[in-house]
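User: two proteins, same treatment. go.

Assistant:
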Amino acid sequence: MTESSAARARKANLPGAKACTPKGKPLHSAPVHKLLPLEQWARQVWPTGGAPKNLARLINRSLRTAKYRLTATYPLDLDDVVRILRSDHGYSFLQFVMGDASPAWWRGLGKARGLAAMRRQMAELQRRLAQAELDFD
């Protein structure tokens, strides 16, 4: 090694390796998987063990990606959340996300859903009553 290359080697990277992000500053905002345990919800919805497969079908992703989402290796992105909310499992997902929170709009939605369920039950009972009256005659 020549004198000049030895001097260059000592001067190379004088400040040392620097972190990609400054200390104390997050790389990005908290990902969705940090806010809600997706795997827990998926196992409530699909208790028979097909959670990765069903989630993959639901969010229109590969099985491998669905497994990564469930294990929080990669966070859910907004498109995945929207697909889940727009599915048949959307309300259960929303209930899981809301947890113990009870803002006024959420309480109102719960009451409205309860009333709708009672109306459906009443309609079914009226239909059965009308059928029973027809059968009685």
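Protein 2:
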Amino acid sequence: MKSSETIWNLLGRLGFASRAALLGGMTFVVWAISAVVGYRLAGSNGLLAATLAGIVCLVATELALVVMALFRDPKLAMHAVLIGMMLRMGLPLLVGGFLQFENQTLANAGLLYYVLIFYLATLFVETALVVSHLQNCHRSPGAR
């Protein structure tokens, strides 16, 4: 068995709390890097922009995970995907857009760039977690 298959199977067996914690940990790592970059580029305003973007994207992605956990019935899978996508994309877009126009200091610090960075990072991890979990749930008992 390849190591990538082992990691994929391990991700698929994680419970909700473990998946949420893994997502939070990954967001913290991205925040640590972007906070340093933000501080070097725009001082405390860059640090604030990176922090706000990280919090908003983390909350939106965690809410999408909650929706996926609530809609377990295969008949409701499309609803879970659409609601999760609206939360994951809509919340950062609305908050980022609002702050971009209402707070020139955060806009100058590059808030929308940080929102984009965190959005893509959390989207990648959350998608991998959900797909691996769904594949693990749909395997036959003999294949495990």
